[in-house]
Design goal:
alpha/beta, Pdz3 Domain, 2-enoyl-CoA Hydratase, Chain A, domain 1, 2 domains, 7-stranded mixed beta sheet, 6-stranded antiparallel beta sheet, 12 helices, about 25% strand, globular, disordered N terminus
């Protein structure tokens, strides 16, 4: 299935490695563009003179802007009003609603992922679900902005969602009570065997510092030497490029973290270790990075850097595959242009665009009874209409191994539930760290 359209404020929908534009490069208009611009003005005149009803100039101009940007890629867009507010909300991480990341796919509202711990997550809404009705009203074929606005609202109020889940014969209804979505970028827990788990849910301000503080807290809670660390980046749609660099730098003391290559002057940048944090904060401790199809952009930068430097073993599913950077270009006090200005590359020079980060060990989420069915309908960057093509090329054979069955992963969700295992991917990562030595889990040479 192909995505029909993305919410203009794509930062709330899918993955961004967002950087603010400190300077705006103004391209000279090619002289050959004159006749093309004349066509635009001619169309405008014909509409104003002959359309069946009067049309406001603002409507036509906005339509022209949206048309230009929609011809580029799914992540570029014009932001004003509520759209710009949503991007601010993503950065601030505080709003009232359900806590869902959604897109519009062929006229239907599709869930990319619920935010961890959000009302939607607590009610069991899953990535890949389709929302067909809100309070009994059909929203198929409608505007995504309108659907998102209806799902938002005052904390404590509720809304009924009708859900179609691929693999189930009948839709079902869920009542969700809106809450204040204060996204916790970083959470941590100490598991048996002095193995720490740090979950990074989105890359907002100070994530690098928050992860460092979480690690210090884990060491204080531990009864002895730390036995390992799981860095959980699953369902993390991205965020600040600077914070992705900062998080990677916590585990690296030398080498390239990521490179950014753009067309405009100043858009080709190199990011190296030892520029944000000094040393490896977990030196000598084995690290596993968990990713899935919802891990995108900034998450892929971190996973790719630690994988290429052999500082961590990457487990889970192939990531989303978004290898581009968006810059926010102000257009006055109340509007901005979110424009794709560069591609990024891992330390080895690989692009994750379309292909994503392939885990070192593919671990399916067996504890989810709908996992196999939802996997067939999972959306990745390569499914988005108009996505950037990987300029380095993708070998299709490299993507086929996702469906190879592994004899280690044959338990059913029911069997895992009987064993008390609620999150198989995390369980497998923890068991791997407990039964191995530091030298046998990916550590830098």
């Amino acid at each position: 299935m192909k995505i029909a359209a993305l919410l203009r404020s794509a930062a709330l929908v899918t993955a961004v490695a967002l950087i603010p534009a400190t300077t705006v490069t103004m391209a000279q208009v090619d002289g050959r563009a004159g006749p093309e611009l004349a066509k635009v003005f001619a169309v405008y005149q014909r509409i104003q003179a002959n359309y069946v009803e009067p049309v406001e100039d603002e409507v036509l101009v906005r339509g022209m802007i949206d048309g230009m940007l929609s011809s580029l890629d799914p992540h570029s867009g014009y932001l004003d009003g509520s759209d710009l507010q949503r991007l601010t909300t993503l950065i601030d991480g505080n709003y009232s609603g359900l806590g869902l990341s959604v897109i519009l796919e062929d006229g239907a509202v599709k869930v990319i992922s619920p935010f961890k711990g959000s009302p939607a997550d607590q009610q069991g809404i899953k990535a890949g679900d389709f929302i067909t009705h809100l309070d009994g009203d059909l929203i198929y074929g409608g505007d995504l902005d309108d659907a998102v606005a209806r799902m938002r609202g005052q904390a404590g109020t509720s809304i009924k969602l009708t859900i179609f889940r691929p693999g189930r014969d009948q839709p079902f209804e869920v009542d969700v009570t809106r809450g204040v979505i204060e996204l916790e970028p970083v959470t941590h827990a100490l598991e048996a065997g002095n193995v720490g788990v740090i979950s990074v849910n989105e890359f907002s301000a100070d994530v690098g510092t928050d992860v460092y503080q979480a690690w210090q807290s884990l060491k204080e809670e531990a009864t002895g030497r730390m036995g390992g660390l799981v860095l959980d980046l699953r369902s993390n749609p991205g965020g600040s490029l600077d914070e992705a660099v900062a998080l990677s730098d916590l585990f690296l003391d030398s080498g390239r973290i990521v490179s950014q290559r753009g067309r405009a002057r100043g858009e080709t940048l190199l990011y190296d270790a030892e520029t944000v944090f000094r040393g490896d904060m977990a030196e000598g401790i084995p690290v596993i990075v968990l990713i899935d199809a919802g891990s995108a952009s900034a998450s892929e930068i971190v996973a790719g850097a630690l994988q290429d430097h052999r500082r961590a073993l990457v487990m889970g599913q192939r990531s989303f595959g978004k290898g581009s950077v968006q810059s926010l270009l102000p257009l006055g006090p109340d509007a901005a242009l979110k424009l794709t200005t560069a591609r990024y590359f891992t330390p080895s020079g690989a692009s994750v665009q379309e292909g994503g980060i392939a885990p070192d060990i593919r671990v399916p989420q067996l504890s989810d009874p709908d996992f196999a069915l939802r996997e067939r309908f999972q959306t990745r960057e390569s499914d988005l209409r108009g996505h950037l093509v990987n300029e380095l090329g993708i070998d299709d054979a490299e993507l086929e191994d996702d469906n190879i069955e592994d004899p280690r992963f044959q338990l059913t969700a029911e069997q895992l539930e009987e064993q008390g295992i609620e999150d198989f991917q995390l369980h497998y990562a923890l068991e791997t760290l407990r039964r191995t030595t530091a030298s046998s889990v990916a550590l830098r040479d």
